[in-house]
Amino acid sequence: MNRYKQRVTLAVAAVLLPFTVACGGEKADSGAVSVQQPVTGIDWRVDGITVGAATRHAPATARLRIDEDGKAAGNLGCNQFSARATVNGDRITIGDLRTTRMACGEERMAFERALARILTTGTLTARADAGKATLTDGDGDRVHLSRSTPG
What we know:
Blueprint: H1 2-28, E1 44-51, E2 54-57, E3 63-66, E4 71-75, E5 80-88, E6 91-94, E7 98-99, H2 106-120, E8 123-129, E9 132-136, E10 142-147
Antiparallel strand pairs: 1-2, 1-3, 1-10, 3-4, 4-5, 5-6, 5-7, 6-8, 8-9, 9-10
């Protein structure tokens, strides 16, 4: 009788296990979970920033690169910068920027100040997909990025 009970239990488990796995798989395929592409180790062109409801296009020189070894560098639109960066999954924190001190037109300098503020006021949430990325700060302000083309 004990062996019969063991066989029945194993048979029921063998029948139910595929259903449990199938149900669990359907939930994961619902579209709620997406594969996150890396943001680090890529040369990004800054396309623009969104502060509040206003989006501003970036100067053509604006660039950003964040490496896994804790370095961030690029161009804010006029001045070059470097900084320490901490990357933890999709969370990025960029420390104080060290910048060159070139003077550019007021529009470029205003863009540069706004970009620097977004990058350094706290932890950013990164989202990347299909050659585009967005860094979002705690206030909902965003930096829009595109993968730079070589050359």
